[in-house]
Structure formats: structure tokens, C-alpha cells
Specification:
heterodimer; A: 301 residues; mainly alpha; MetI-like fold; two-stranded antiparallel ribbon; 13 helices; 2 strands; globular; B: 443 residues; alpha/beta; D-Maltodextrin-Binding Protein, domain 2; eight-stranded mixed sheet; two-stranded antiparallel sheet; 46% helix; Bact_solute-bd_prot1 (chain B); Extracellular solute-binding protein (chain B); TAT_signal (chain B)
């Protein structure tokens, strides 16, 4: 007993490991293991319809993507979708954040309203927009009829371009508030002295925006770009509910194709490969953003 | 607080305990999968259509047989995925609903066992329509007893047709377009034809119905695609659809935004004169409690390219027996009660479903049952109903593992045709190409 009690207490490093062990174990089991396992599955021919054909095939699933028309088409749709959603989100979020950064009557109410869409789950968002775009009873048709802009009700989601743009719009509506919060937080950190100094130097509103506001917003903007790119690449629920990926392949994004491949076609091998490609693409883009904006932000600020 | 090594060892022990806990919890759970409850009870799963009625019927079974049934209804939209997940992870049901679309894959996946040679199976297969027997057979073995079946028909609003001066439904696609055009020109309806053509996970029976009604097929008996070579019906049907949607504009362009339920609602609100759908839909369409068009909705054979009678498409939903069930005898007794013949040689449950909800039956003799006929007359013409059952046949491509992928691809191609982005000749070429690619992928 005396030998045991005389043992030295643990060092800081061991204590840190001991205290973090439960969290590390949970993360390893719930996050790291599924991620690692999905990569392992992506290296297999693994379709639940054909369990006897299951086997390790190395990178064949990844190689097959190069000649997979469905994948290439979905990748193209996803890329354009990301560009449109990201472009609209950044521009609208910046405008809204600049407006909400000013002091005016009703600002609190406007802020609450602007944040409302964020509270809405993607599926509900899709259902709401489906009701609005409905060809027979949709609010959009009703509004445009009342304004005299159309003679008869239109089926907005039946043309490839229409479906794509309206789906992108629905996605932007859902994710815009998050970007607004981030940019608004960034705007609130800009010292007012900088604007005073710029005004003394006879800088106009546009110059103050480009020379003071934008450099200070580069870091928040970086966060917005990274997260919204990921969101747009992974967009599934709104698109699934609104168009199901149609008409034709017009709104079949890579995330939609992935879910379809795994859950409808039960092809877990190929579906996991799709998922890893999405991960790799968003990672590359994120690293690109950091390279472009993070250092630049530091330097200029 | 200082931690010594002994305390660290204790914490590590707790960590291991926590890791083992889920296993212990699982062992203590009340999972009765595979008849594991030990009392011979049968774990039974199905999609959630009329779960209360299902339970009511199962209670009757338990009362008469003394076999307990643990019934779990699963939401329809995720039925296939959840069943696959259950069988894959272990703990699947003993008996379950099976779509004819899923049969081949579930047999290949070792989820189901054949029921050949079990009591009464031969008798059942002799008593049902050949199309249903074919749909429940895979590679020469029988895997199911029939739950319900239905075939596709033309559903029309007789009052709207009458206002346009037509006393008979169209027999050919040309007539259908002409009647719809007259309805349109008279200002009765902007788009008289509506079809559910939004992408979804469910099959598009109406496309198959149009092809089969004109005597065509997309595949030969060896499941090789013929829609681009020896069989021109698919191309001609697609051409008709494209013209109806884009030239005469009698087919509602909003169809691309419509799932089956909105089409049903539009029919019940007199907003379409025609659609192509399952026979049992007429029961709802003609129910005054649910439909403004009640009493006006009629069924006819699906119009064909040449106006002659060729056929239509049928689907079969069945009860299957799990391969690994530990309560095979009890599970099969349940299957027989639900899908087979009773001691009086009548299919009790099939009749129950028809009377309760108008679900189609696979048993030929039920068509002559006076109670069935009387009930049928309330919403449909028994003669046409029976004729559709006689001429209906299943998709001959159900037996391939890649069918689901092909069906999904077909939806996209048909959408392209309806929205005038793809020409019919390119559409059939694309379908044939897809089928060949899938065959290669699955070979």
C-alpha cells in the first residue's frame, strides 16, 4: 500500500489526456469512425442489392467517376449552383448587413424578420417555396396576375432555367440570414475613428466602403464564403422537395445524386465515393479562400 | 485535485464500461426481431397505408390462430430504405410487404426465402391472374402471396366530355388529343390532360401503361432494350406526349411539377378531364365526401396508338417471408391469412381490402363475387374493371437488379420530352444507352 501511495502524481500532459479522453472517445466513435469507414466503403464494390458481389476494388469507384455522365452532369450543375447561390448570398447579405448596421427606427424588427428564414429547416423551406411557385394555386402566380405581369398562371419549375433559378433563390432565402449575422458582427468591430479619419481625408461613401469597410470585412467574408460554399455544395433538402432534381437533370446536384445513389439505388460504394469527392472539392475551395483572403485581410487591416 | 495512476486506471475502466454499455443496452432491449421473443410471435412490417385497418385485421388473425403479431408500420416514402437497413444490420422482420419492384433485389440480397412447396401456395398461384403470379416469381421460384394489385386505366370526367359533345371516351391517342383539344377550344379547361410527372422515387405507371396499351415494350424477354430498335411504340408514344404538351398544348405543362396526390386533387376538383391512373383511384374520385367530381368520373382502357386493345400495366404488392425467420411456421400462417386462401377457399383479406378501400385483388374469382360486384358498381364499371385485370401485365424488367436506376433515368428522359428539350428519337436512344450501361455495370 505504501508503495502505491508514494507514486508521483500525474504530469500536466497526462492529466490533459485523461480529462479529454471521454470527449476524444465520443468524437472518435461518432465522427472519426464513420468518416473513416465511409472512405473504406468507397474503396469497395458495395451495393446492398448484390451482397455477394461485395469486394475491395481500390480506387475503381473514383476512376469510374471520370466517365460517369450522371456524376459529371451533377458536378456541373453543382458548380453553377454554388456560383449563383454564393454570388447572390454575398451581395444580398452585404447590402442587408450594411443597412442593419445603421441606426434607424424599426431596425430591431427588421433584424428579427431578416433572421427568421434561418430558423426554418430545409424541408420546410422547400415545401413553402413549392407552395409559392405552385402552377395552379401559387402565391407568385397570384401576385403577378394582380400586378398585370402575366395573363395566365405559369408553371415556373417546368423549364430547366426557371427551375434552376427558383431553386437557387429558395436556397439563398434560407441561408442568407447566417451570412448577414456574420457580416453584421464584422461591421460592428470597425472602429468609427477610421470612418472619421477617412471623412476628414475627403473620402466619399464609395471610397470609405472600399478602403475601410471591405478590408475589415475580409475575415468575416472568408467565413461566409467557406460555409456558404459548403452549404451550397451540400444543398439537398430544398432541391429535393422543390424539383426532385428535375426537369431532366437541370437541378440534380451532386448531393442529390449522392443521396439517390446511396438510399434509392443502395450503392454504398459509389455513393461514398461521391461524398468524398464533395468533401475534397469543398476542402480545396476552402484552402483557396484562405490563401486568397486571410493573408490579404491581415496585411491590409 | 491531483490524479494518481490508480485514479487514471479507474477512469479508464469507466471508459471501457461506457464503451460496452450500448452492447449491454442492446442485449436488454425488447427487440423481437426474427421471432427472438421466444413466444412464437411474428414480427411483421409494412408501409404505413391504413395502419389502423391493418392492425384490426391482424387482431382478428391473433384471435383465431393464437399467434401474436408485432406489427410495425413504416412510412411509405422510406419503406424500402428502412427494410434494407434492417436486413443489412440484422433484426429484420419475419414477414413483410414487398413491392414487385424490389423483389429481385431483395432475393439477391438474401432477405427473402421462396415459398414453393408450402401448404396452399400452388392453389393460390392457380387462382390468381397470371400477371400477378409472374410478378411474384423470380428465377422460377415463388416468393410472395398477393396483398393487392392494380392496373392502369384512362380516368375521365364524363360530364366535361358530355359538355364538349362526346358520349364515349377515346380509344386512340389521336382521339384523346382531339377530344382534349375540343374541350380546350370550347374554353372548358385550359389543359384537359394532367399527369404526375415530377421526379420522385415512385414508378411512373402511366408511361408503361401508354406503351403497353399500344402493344409495345421497352425490353425483350432477355431484358435487352428494344425501344430504340425493333419496337417503335415507345418512340411513338413519346412523340405523342411531346405534341400534346407542346403543340396542341392539351397536356398541362404543370405536370412536371405534379406528384400523384396533386393530380388526384385536381381530378376531384374538375380541373382535368383526363388522367391515366390506377383503377382504385376511382373509388376516391367518386366519393362525394372527398370529391366535387363524384359520380362523373369513369374508367376506360388506356388509349392506344392504333385504337385497338392491346394491354395495360399492372403492379403487384405482396407479402414475403424473411429468409432468416426463426418462426417460419407462424410467419407463413400469417402470410396465408393475409394473402392466401382460408379454410373456405376464399381470400378473406383480399376481399377485406377491396371492401374497405377498393384495393384491387389478384384472385380471378373475386370478380364474380356478388358483394364485390355490388361494391364495385358504386365507383366503376365492373366489366371494364375486369377487362383491365385480364389484359394487364407486369413490367418484364422487374427481375433485374438495375431496374430502379433505369426507372429513375426514364423519368428524367420523359421530363425532357415533355419540356421539349429532348426529341423522342434521342430519348429512346438515351434510354437504350442507359439500359446497356446499367447492364454492364451490374454484370
Amino acid at each position: 500500500m505504501s508503495v502505491l501511495t508514494e507514486r508521483r502524481p500525474l504530469g500536466d500532459s497526462a492529466k490533459a489526456w485523461a480529462l479529454n479522453a471521454p470527449a476524444i472517445t465520443v468524437i472518435a466513435l461518432l465522427v472519426a469512425y464513420p468518416i473513416g469507414y465511409s472512405f473504406y466503403v468507397s474503396l469497395q464494390r458495395n451495393n446492398l442489392k448484390r451482397p455477394r458481389a461485395k469486394r475491395f476494388i481500390g480506387f475503381d469507384n473514383y476512376k469510374s467517376l471520370l466517365s460517369d455522365d450522371a456524376f459529371l452532369s451533377a458536378l456541373k450543375v453543382s458548380a453553377v449552383f454554388v456560383l449563383v447561390v454564393l454570388g447572390l448570398t454575398v451581395i444580398l447579405a452585404l447590402i442587408l448587413a450594411l443597412v442593419l448596421n445603421e441606426r434607424f427606427r424599426g431596425r430591431g424588427l427588421l433584424l428579427s424578420l431578416a433572421l427568421l428564414p434561418w430558423a426554418m429547416p430545409g424541408v420546410v423551406n422547400g415545401l413553402m417555396w413549392r407552395t409559392i411557385f405552385d402552377a395552379k394555386t401559387g402565391a407568385l402566380n397570384g401576385l403577378m396576375m394582380q400586378l398585370g405581369l402575366i395573363d395566365t398562371y405559369q408553371a415556373w419549375l417546368t423549364s430547366a432555367t426557371g427551375a434552376f433559378l427558383f431553386t437557387a433563390l429558395a436556397q439563398v432565402w434560407n441561408t442568407l440570414p447566417f451570412s448577414v449575422i456574420i457580416l453584421l458582427a464584422g461591421l460592428s468591430t470597425i472602429p468609427s475613428e477610421l470612418y472619421d479619419a477617412a471623412t476628414v481625408d475627403r473620402a466619399g461613401a464609395f471610397r470609405r466602403f472600399t478602403q475601410v469597410t471591405v478590408p475589415w470585412l475580409l475575415h468575416p467574408l472568408l467565413i461566409v464564403l467557406i460555409l456558404e460554399t459548403m452549404n451550397a455544395f451540400r444543398a439537398f433538402d430544398t432541391i429535393y422537395v422543390l424539383t426532385g432534381g428535375g426537369p431532366g437533370d437541370a437541378t440534380t446536384t451532386i448531393a442529390l445524386l449522392d443521396v439517390q445513389t446511396v438510399l434509392t439505388f443502395t450503392d454504398f460504394g459509389l455513393g461514398s465515393a461521391y461524398a468524398w469527392v464533395i468533401t475534397a472539392i469543398t476542402l480545396i475551395i476552402s484552402v483557396g479562400y484562405i490563401g486568397l483572403l486571410y493573408r490579404k485581410g491581415n496585411f491590409e487591416v | 485535485m491531483e490524479l494518481n495512476r490508480r485514479q487514471v486506471l479507474k477512469l479508464a475502466g469507466l471508459g471501457l464500461g461506457a464503451t460496452a454499455t450500448p452492447g449491454l443496452l442492446a442485449a436488454c432491449s425488447n427487440d423481437t426481431s426474427g421471432g427472438g421473443a421466444g413466444d412464437g410471435s411474428v414480427k411483421f412490417e409494412g408501409w404505413d397505408y391504413e395502419a389502423t385497418l391493418v392492425q384490426q385485421n391482424l387482431d382478428r388473425f391473433t384471435k383465431t390462430s393464437n399467434i401474436k403479431v408485432n406489427y410495425t408500420p413504416i412510412t411509405s416514402a422510406q419503406y424500402v430504405q428502412k427494410v434494407v437497413a434492417e436486413f443489412t444490420g440484422g433484426g429484420g422482420p419475419d414477414a413483410l410487404y414487398v413491392y414487385d419492384d424490389s423483389l429481385a433485389a431483395w432475393v439477391e440480397g438474401d432477405y427473402l426465402q421462396p415459398i414453393d412447396g408450402l401448404p396452399g401456395v400452388d392453389e393460390v398461384y392457380a387462382a390468381i391472374f397470371p400477371g400477378n403470379a409472374e410478378a411474384m416469381t423470380y428465377q422460377g421460384k415463388r416468393y410472395g402471396l398477393p396483398y393487392y394489385t392494380d392496373s392502369n386505366c384512362l380516368i375521365y370526367n364524363a360530364e366535361i366530355l358530355s359538355k364538349a359533345g362526346f358520349s364515349k371516351p377515346p380509344a386512340s391517342l389521336e382521339e384523346l388529343e382531339a377530344q382534349a383539344a375540343k374541350i380546350k377550344s370550347m374554353g372548358l379547361l385550359e389543359h384537359p390532360i394532367g399527369l404526375p410527372a415530377q421526379l420522385s422515387d415512385t414508378w411512373w405507371a402511366w408511361v408503361w401503361g401508354l406503351v403497353f396499351s399500344s402493344g409495345g415494350n421497352m425490353f425483350d424477354d432477355q431484358q435487352a432494350p428494344i425501344m430504340n430498335t425493333s419496337d417503335t411504340v415507345t418512340k411513338d408514344v413519346l412523340t405523342w406526349l411531346q405534341n400534346a404538351a407542346n403543340k396542341s398544348k392539351v397536356l398541362d405543362p404543370a405536370s412536371l411539377q405534379l406528384l400523384p396526390v396533386p393530380v388526384d386533387n385536381a381530378m376531384k376538383a374538375n380541373r382535368y378531364a383526363f388522367t391515366i391512373g390506377a383503377r382504385y383511384a376511382l373509388r376516391d374520385y367518386n366519393d362525394p365526401q372527398k370529391s366535387k367530381a363524384a359520380g362523373k368520373m369513369k374508367m376506360a382502357l388506356v388509349p392506344s396508338l392504333d385504337g385497338k386493345v392491346h394491354g395495360t400495366i399492372s403492379n403487384t404488392r405482396m407479402y414475403g417471408l424473411a429468409k432468416d425467420t426463426e418462426v417460419k411456421d407462424n410467419a407463413f400462417k400469417l402470410l396465408t391469412y393475409l394473402g392466401g386462401l382460408g379454410e373456405d377457399k376464399t381470400p378473406y383479406t383480399a376481399k377485406f381490402w377491396f371492401q374497405q378501400r377498393g384495393l384491387g385483388f389478384a384472385y380471378k374469382d373475386l370478380a364474380k363475387d356478388p358483394e364485390i360486384t355490388a361494391s364495385l358498381k358504386k365507383f366503376a364499371d365492373p366489366a371494364i374493371y375486369a377487362q383491365l385485370a385480364e389484359i394487364a401485365r407486369p413490367r418484364n424488367v422487374l427481375g433485374v437488379a438495375w431496374y430502379t436506376e433505369f426507372e429513375t433515368e426514364m423519368h428524367k428522359v420523359v421530363q425532357g420530352v415533355l419540356s421539349n428539350q429532348v426529341q423522342p428519337s434521342a430519348a429512346v436512344a438515351s434510354l437504350a444507352q442507359s439500359a446497356e450501361t446499367l447492364k454492364k455495370k451490374y454484370s
